[in-house]
Amino acid sequence: MGRARLTDIAREAGVSSATVDRVLNDRPGVRARTRDAVRTAAARLGYIDGAESPAQPIVPVCRLEMVLPAGTNSFMRELARHIEQLSALHPEARVTIHSIEGFDPDSLAAKLAEFGAPDQGVAVVAIDHPTVREAMRALALRGSAVITLVSDIHHVPRAGYVGIDNRSAGRLAGYLVGRLLGPGHHRVALFAGSLSYRGHEEREMGFRHVLAEDFPTIGILDSTEVRDDDSRAHAAAMAMFEAHPDVDAIYNIGAGNRGIARALEETGRARRVIFVGHDLTEHTKGFLLNRTMDVVIDQNPRVQAREALAQLVRSVKGEPWSALAVRVQAIFRENIPEL
Q1: 298-320 pLDDT tens trace
Q2: With contact defined as beta carbons under 8 Å apart, do 156 and 137 qualify?
Q3: Which of 283, 290, 326, 334 has an alpha carbon 20 to 30 Å from 124's alpha carbon atom?
Q4: Model-level pTM?
Q5: Which pLDDT tens digit goes with each residue over 92-139?
Q6: How far is C-alpha 300 from the geometric centre of its chain's CA atoms?
Q7: Phi-psi region at 227: left, alpha or beta (left = phi > 0; alpha = psi -120 to 50)
């Protein structure tokens, strides 16, 4: 028996320690697929003899292409890391992560044009653009199973979408900003990665709607696109403070939190301006702890990686879609979970 603990196996398999205990002690109540994943993880970590684990295919029978945007986006890096880790749970698949310029529809369409076969599944964080939509239609015609990840696109042939309800996440952000600001007339600045991502557009729509409905005395400045880049976000925030020194709150729809936080700290506004953003990372965790950020709205990259891999394998095999909904969680300084 190796040095691995039940918590190590649980983390590797993407399940709870209680589930690991049930599997390793042959107790009922665990699905066959989950049981196989736990025993495979336990064997890989040296907790049990590999001979005790169920036989797994040695030769991959499908190819999974995960197309993610490159850049300084910490959430996307976390998503890629979880995809790499959890791909071990699918020995029947060969998983490849492709990083491309996230805001160039032609580059994304060109990458999608490289794929296309019945044994191939493609997950894509897609820009909602005519060139990309046409590339996805052509990819589906070539026989590949296609899913959208993190940000959805409508009116294209896809097996399904893995991600949060972004409009609901934007409404949650608006409600939190309104409650944190309290009564009175206030001004809020919006920053977005790019509204060519439907997910960012939906978040802004939800944010604006809830403020108009419930907090009509809060004014919203024109949104600024920072392309999920920390340097651009810092420069844009500094320019915004110069033009609107009386701003009371910031809602960052996408990435770039590090740049905005640095601008808040450099101008002495870190504990005076309400700052709500997305995605719990080591950086945003630190900003919550030092009170530069007030709330982080998280979308759990591990769950999205797990569901994307599982649903792509199912789709390539011709099995029906069965993904779980990805929950949105509001994280404050007092309820930071383990990353």
Answers
A1: 999 999 999 999 999 999 999 99
A2: yes
A3: 283
A4: 0.82
A5: 899 999 999 878 999 999 999 999 999 999 999 999 999 999 999 999
A6: 6
A7: left
Query: Per-residue confidence at 280, pLDDT binned at 50, 70, 90?
Result: very high
| Buried/exposed 106-134: b ≥16 CB within 10 Å, e otherwise | ebbbebbeebbeeebbbbbbbbbbebbbe
Which residues fall within 8 angstroms of residue 2, CB to CB, at 6 or more apart?
A: 45, 46, 47
According to the 3-state scheme, what is the secondary structure of the chain? Answer: CCCCCHHHHHHHHCCCHHHHHHHHCCCCCCCHHHHHHHHHHHHHCCCCCHHHCCCCCCCCCEEEEEEEECCCCHHHHHHHHHHHHHHHHCCCEEEEEEEECCCCHHHHHHHHCCCCCCCEEEEECCCCCHHHHHHHHHHHHCCCEEEEECCCCCCCCCCEEECCCHHHHHHHHHHHHHHHHCCCCEEEEEEECCCCCHHHHHHHHHHHHHHHHHCCCEEECCCEECCCCHHHHHHHHHHHHHHCCCCCEEEECCCCHHHHHHHHHHCCCCCCCEEEEECCCHHHHHHHHCCCCCEEEECCHHHHHHHHHHHHHHHHCCCCCCCCCCCCEEECHHHCCCC
The pLDDT tens digits for 145-177 are: 999 999 999 899 999 999 999 999 999 999 999
Pairwise CA distance, residues 306 & 303, whole Å:
5
pLDDT score at 52: 53
| Cβ atoms 267, 241 nearer than 8 A | yes
